[in-house]
Amino acid sequence: MLQIDGIFGSLELPSKHIQAAVEQMASLPGVGRKTALRLVLHLLNQDNSDVRAFGKAFVELKDNVQFCKTCHNVSDAQLCSICSSYKREASTVCVVEDMRNVIAIENTQQYTGVYHVLGGIISPMDGIGPSELNIESLVNRVKQGEIKEVIMALSTTIEGDTTNFYIYKRLSEFDVEISTIARGVAIGDDLEYTDEITLGRSLLNRVPYNSGLVKN
């Protein structure tokens, strides 16, 4: 018999395979061992074909999903569907933290430009500096001269504002308009959880980034 301690007290598991599956489930963020065991037992009661399809989906996810070579959004091809669409305004680039923000903005149906996904925000406390993010590739895109406006659409947190300012300083030497979403998004809010109407209006009513800087 195998045991899982902690939240279960001292619960014996009758199979090493169940234990291995529980450990893998529990490694996911936000999934405790109690939830992991419940999920494993649920899968154990499913048809073999369903469980194989479940596992296959994640194997294919890892094997086939890649990052767009231009904007770094997740994609099934080298160029994502947004970057490759002739309907998008390629001269306007919206800078976001990750794929979840792309989804949030797309759901507003108010934005017709393209994106640049940083892959995070500057956070010294977490050991994330500019070199860990997709900032240099953004600078190179602007350097090519085809981009007319860069919209900063990062979360209105200290880390988000720090990243905004860093990018603003990096792009200030180029002939490009730098704007930020209007503060209809409350300070301290994560963009992912902002309602679609507020987010859409914030995009439409965006303002020049330097207008929000404190003047000495």
Topology, pairings included?
Blueprint: E1 2-6, E2 9-13, H1 16-26, H2 33-44, H3 48-64, E3 66-67, E4 74-75, E5 89-96, H4 99-108, E6 113-117, H5 136-143, E7 149-152, H6 158-171, E8 177-180, H7 196-204, E9 207-208
| CATH topology term of the largest domain | Dna Topoisomerase Vi A Subunit, Chain: A, domain 2
**What's the count of strands?**
9
Share of β-strand residues: 15-25%
Number of domains: 2
Mean pLDDT across the residues is 85
Low-pLDDT residue spans: 6-10
> Helix and strand succession?
EEHHHEEEHEHEHEHE
Word description of this protein:
The protein is 38% helix and 17% strand. The protein is of the alpha/beta class and 216 residues long. Strands 6-5-7-8-9 form a five-stranded mixed sheet. It has a two-stranded antiparallel ribbon with strand order 1-2. A two-stranded antiparallel sheet has the order 3-4. A hairpin with a 2-residue loop joins strand 1 and strand 2.
Concise structural overview:
The chain has 216 residues and is α/β, with parallel strands linked by helices. The chain has helices spanning 16-26, 33-44, 48-64, 99-108, 136-143, 158-171, 196-204; strands at residues 2-6, 9-13, 66-67, 74-75, 89-96, 113-117, 149-152, 177-180, 207-208.
Keywords:
216 residues; alpha/beta; Helicase, Ruva Protein, domain 3; Dna Topoisomerase Vi A Subunit, Chain: A, domain 2; 2 domains; five-stranded mixed sheet; two-stranded antiparallel ribbon; 17% strand; elongated
